[in-house]
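Researcher: Before we compare anything, I want clean individual predictions. No alignment, no superposition, just each chain on its own. First chain goes here; please echo the sequence and then give the structure tokens.
Model: Echoing the first chain and its structure:
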Amino acid sequence: MSKTENEPLTPENPEAATAAPPLSPEQIEDLKNRAAKADEHWERLLRTTADFDNFKKRAAREKTEAMQYANVALLQKLLPALDNFEMALTAAQSAQGDKLASLQSGVQMIQQQLKGTLVESGLEEIDALGKPFDPAVHEAVSQQESADVPEDHVALQLRKGYKFKDRLLRPATVIVAKKPAATPQ
């Protein structure tokens, strides 16, 4: 018998620590099965990782395309109004007398069609006239003395403002009322 078979494993006997007991055929078969399963799991992990990377790339590409073509539905809704404007311009070139009133009516209908499409898409008009001045939605270009409109209220709206859902697209351009100056006597 060798010295390592009978002696216990201790730090003083390092040879005993390196000697492995012989494996039975069942243990060898079990290790082979475990190695095969480990290889199978490794392959599955590699495939899953590749699938996930492909998914991330596809999702990024789809997001870019969605942002690029986000306004397609809105533009498709606006095309009929554009067509009607073109027909109105053609009619305006040959309009005389009674046809002028008809043209005005047609252009007004086109404006209503366009407004309806924009409102349906989430556009909201900012009504500023007579309201207290709000720098968050109004852009004051000057002040005007007024006895009819309270001080710091909108006396005149020069250009309409618009919101899209809760986001300000363009502030309303306004003239703000101030108290009339006292007349000297």
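Researcher: Okay. Second chain, same rules.
Model: Second chain and its structure:
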Amino acid sequence: MFEKEPFGELERLVTQKLPDVARGVAREELRSEVWLWLMAQIGSRSYEQMRVDSWDIDLMTFGMEVVLNRRLTAGSVKRFEFAEQQPQQAFAVEPGLEQFLKDTPLSGDATEEEIEFLKAMKFKGKQPSRSYYCRELQNLRDPLHFPPVAQPGESV
């Protein structure tokens, strides 16, 4: 895509996201005459100039950061990136995992979250057995491996 239209998609991203961010702030704040004058005063700008905020784009990573005046609006920094990601692939269930899941005495009380974790495990050149998955499930549940995490304001 970039070879056919150098920076065409990037330009669309910039021209789409900057107005989206500005529009969001405008909807929230621009109805307030006091806010408009305050923004102009804090930024040492004229009333007409105060609608302008800053943005920066990194052409190496295609990351874009939009910075709104922190003193005047809540979510003042917005970051957007073009990033290469691996596609989500549907992997075949490992034979050992399939055997483990069919063995109800071993896997009968496994939660969906635990099963999804076991399914996500990938092995290059190896095929774990049913007993491997049984042990892995035990490891997931062992409090020695995963001690409780203290919540804010709480001690463990």
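Researcher: What stands out in the second chain?
Model: The chain has two domains: 8-81, 95-141. Additionally, The chain has a mean pLDDT of 76.
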